[in-house]
Amino acid sequence: LTTIYTECESWFGRKVMKVLRFSGITPRSSYNLELLRIICEQLCLLLQPSAHCVPQDASFDPLYVNNWFQTLIRRFDEESPDRDPSGRHLLVIMIDDIHRLNPLDSDIVAALSWLPINLPRNVHIIGTTHSSPDILKLTPVQRERFKLPDCY
């Protein structure tokens, strides 16, 4: 991840907003919902540095946090700061050791169900793991999608 973090701007040839998180290092980064909330907070700060990073109506409901994340990554496609000439800014989210994330009792489908299978064109998510997609806590659709060559 160090190489990706330091070199991704030269690979893409433009400014990249980067989010780097390490799973399982702190209690908040050990649970999938908490890690997702941290990522959402950081995305809010990237989009609006002077605004509050948590919405007033924020909830700990997994569906709320998942929708919040989806909304934020779509906003990077629409209104990101410091846009390149094409009007879009590139976002790269890097998550180390996703296999270390613990599910919550409220995870109805799968612990990693919040990982999108389709992203806006200028948003990339890179996750590292010691496990194959078959062992990770993914939905069946995610498991099949993440096996495809364009996901590597």
Mean pLDDT: 82
Shape: globular
Oligomer classification: single chain
Class computed from helices, strands and strand pairing = alpha/beta
> In angstroms, what separates the terminal alpha carbons?
14 Å
**What's the CATH topology label?**
Rossmann fold
Rg for CA atoms: 15 Å
Number of helical regions: 5
Helix content: 25-40%
Q: Which stretches are low in confidence, meaning pLDDT under 50 for 5 or more residues running?
A: none
Q: Estimate nothing, just give the exact number of structural domains.
A: 1
Please give the number of β-strands: 3
Mind describing the biggest β-sheet?
Answer: 3 strands, parallel
Task: Give the structure's gist in a few sentences.
The chain is an alpha/beta fold and 152 residues long. It is built from 5 helices and 3 strands.
Keywords:
alpha/beta, three-stranded parallel beta sheet, 5 helices, NACHT-WD_repeat, AAA+ ATPase domain-containing protein
Structural commentary:
- This protein is of the alpha/beta class and 152 residues long.
- Helix content is 37%, strand content 12%.
- The chain has a single domain, classed as Rossmann fold (3-Layer(aba) Sandwich), CATH 3.40.50.
- It has a three-stranded parallel sheet with strand order 1-2-3, with helices on both faces.
- InterPro entries: NACHT-WD_repeat, P-loop_NTPase.
- It comes from Homalodisca liturata.
